Amino acid sequence: GWKVKSPFKGVISKIYPNYAMQITNKEGLQILIDIQVDRKNPMPLDKILQCEVEEGQEVSSKTTLFIVYLEEQVISVSVYIP
């Protein structure tokens, strides 16, 4: 598997149940990291990937946000500026 790391220092401002999260830095820049998983497969999400952080947690570029166990089930990892 592989790890999805935070792109910068900030705070986890929101974690969504569909494996997306919002991070805000001290200047107020927000990004949304969204992991798209193949939902045609009936495998439970916790067997595919796991969230490693909590809302309100401070993170740096070394912080692991997600661990992906079955990378073949991940369609994409996208970063957006909302």
What's this entry about, in short?
The chain is mainly β and 82 residues long. The chain contains one helix and eight strands; from the N terminus they run ββββαββββ. The mean pLDDT is 93.
Strand order of the largest sheet: 6-2-3-4-8
State the secondary-structure class.
mainly beta
What do the pLDDT scores average to? 93
In CATH, what is the class?
Answer: Mainly Beta
Share of helix, binned: under 10%
Enter the CATH topology name.
Glucose Permease (Domain IIA)
Sequence stretches where pLDDT stays below 50 over 5 or more residues: none
Strand content range: over 45%
User: What's the helix-strand series?
Assistant: EEEEHEEEE
| CATH homologous superfamily caption | Glucose Permease (Domain IIA)
Q: Please indicate the count of domains.
A: 1
CATH architecture: Distorted Sandwich
Largest sheet: 5 strands, antiparallel
Task: Give an account of the 3D structure.
- With 82 residues, this protein is mainly beta.
- It has one domain: Distorted Sandwich (Glucose Permease (Domain IIA)).
- The strands form 2 sheets. The chain has a 5-stranded antiparallel sheet with strand order 6-2-3-4-8, with no helix packed on it. Strands 1-7-5 form a 3-stranded antiparallel sheet.
- It starts with a strand and ends with a strand.
- The relative contact order is 0.36.
- One of its GO terms (molecular function) is transferase activity.
